[in-house]
Amino acid sequence: MSPFLTTTDPQGGMRFRAFAIPLIIGLICTSIVASMALAGLVGAGLGMAVGAVAATGLVVFASRARPNLRIEVAEHTDSAHRVLVVATAEATAGSAQRIAELAGSPKDLRVVVPVPSHRLDRWMSAEDARREAEGLLARSAGALVAAGLPVSGSVGDHDPAQALEDELRNFPADEVILLVANGKDPLAKIETRLSLPLRRVSS
Fold it and tell me: Which of 31, 91, 107, 131 would bridge 80 by S-S if both were Cys, CB 3.0 to 4.6 A apart?
């Protein structure tokens, strides 16, 4: 949601500014009136089409607006240290050693691998994508175990940010490590919502 329309409270919650709701309602009403006016000038069909486009735009805008709330993290039941690794790239011996240095001596290092989204490969099935993620998870877990870490793992949503959010609901992590390749940072958009330390390692 645009900062022009919203503010963030001290708890990380999103609040609309005083003028935001009247402005949004005004835009909806304007689109309806405009479509009715066009119906009289250019015909009902085109007027309805313009109104439909305007309404669709508002629906898309609303659906893409997500509350800027803090990401929920499962509560600890003990004082043990746990680390969550979001792996969008395969762990090598070098990157696994770097993760081990950052993680210290955790009780559990959970690796979550997002299922790859092959937008250009329309013939790849969901089963194939999941098998690819499972293979990456197995190889990365092997490298991390070889680096001396106690590893568990899972396959998550194709969106790394959503995979992180889903995993944290059940895994009481104390910190997050993002394993990436090619300098991409899929967690940058949610870093302000994350109450845990976030560090990055290149594969």
Answer: 107
